[in-house]
Design goal:
CATH superfamily of the largest domain: Periplasmic binding protein-like II
CATH topology of the largest domain: D-Maltodextrin-Binding Protein, domain 2
Strand content: 15-25%
Distance between the termini: 58 Å
Order of helices and strands: HHHEEHEHEHEEEHEHEEEHH
Length: about 300
């Protein structure tokens, strides 16, 4: 079994079609790709994909194999990245990632923590969605990231803030007259919340609504804040989102706090446990400085 078999298999699953995967992603012929998948199934000893006129679907064996295939490819990429870094030991870099929108609150504090090292290292900054940041940490593309505690990734996490959820609504919504919003106000409104990809936010939201005794159905699940604000404006719905949304609001969307004790979602500094960077070690040793500088911290 070769790595290309795994790459081909994952591509077919993600595209849902042998033809699409062959032409648009793998740049090979469909008959050649079909042979590669058959070879893989022969080596595994089980049918991984079922074919029909509608495309391809995973079998039970294929579903189990997909998890490990993706993990194997991720580990190979991480090994390549580690080897490339080791080949250039003189280049001291430190890559920091932020869940999009959080850099406004946390970049100054992160740079302050590294103040003594800035003359001798190159710091790179990027922003992305939390699951993508976690994957970048696993692959060695980032040294540290400000993100959610993503349960599907084996990373080290240090919580630096407990961020309350707030309500987003259209700027001319009837509830803008309220100083705070009770969860029962969501009844009868279009409700926007975290999608399955934004699993941490979704779990916090569902737990809060259950504890509040409110039984409402999620109308739209979103992966990121930009999608949430777009849906609030276009559907005139209400969204429960972390408070950092206030850094990103367009004129058409406003926010209000929740009435009573609002649920919180953790923001953490994440890192790979296998990362031996001395700069990372220094950064982690100064996390108390970061916590003291949290947006809602008392001094």
């Amino acid at each position: 079994m070769e790595l290309r078999h795994l790459r081909y298999f994952v591509a077919v699953v993600e595209e849902g079609s042998l033809t699409t995967a062959a032409e648009l992603r793998l740049h090979t012929s469909q008959p050649s790709l079909s042979r590669q998948i058959r070879d893989l199934e022969y080596q595994v000893g089980a049918e991984l994909l079922s074919r029909s006129v509608h495309g391809v679907e995973l079998t039970a064996a294929g579903t189990a194999f997909l998890v490990h295939a993706r993990l194997a490819l991720t580990q190979v990429e991480a090994a390549v990245e580690a080897a490339r870094r080791a080949a250039q030991p003189a280049r001291k870099t430190f890559a920091i990632g932020f869940q999009t929108g959080h850099e406004m609150n946390w970049l100054p504090q992160a740079m302050h923590v590294l103040r003594d090292e800035l003359k001798s290292i190159q710091v790179t900054i990027s922003s992305d969605y939390s699951p993508d940041l976690a994957e970048a940490l696993v692959r060695g593309r980032l040294d540290v990231a400000f993100l959610r505690v993503e349960p599907t990734f084996d990373l080290g996490y240090e919580v630096v803030d407990h961020e309350p959820l707030i309500v987003l609504m259209p700027s001319d919504h009837r509830l803008t007259s309220r100083e705070a919003i009770h969860p029962r106000e969501f009844v009868g409104e279009i409700f926007i919340g975290g999608s399955n990809k934004a699993s941490v936010l979704r779990a916090v939201t569902e737990d809060y609504l259950r504890r509040s005794g409110v039984d409402i159905k999620l109308d739209h699940g979103v992966d990121n804040m930009a999608m949430a604000m777009s849906l609030v404006a276009s559907t005139r719905g209400l969204a429960l989102m972390p408070a950092y949304a206030k850094n990103l609001l367009p004129w058409s969307v406003v926010s209000r706090p929740l009435e009573g004790e609002a649920p919180t979602i953790d923001l953490a500094v994440g890192y790979s446990k296998a990362n031996t960077s001395p700069i990372l070690k220094l950064f982690l040793s100064r996390l108390e400085e970061l916590r003291a500088a949290a947006p809602g911290a008392t001094h």
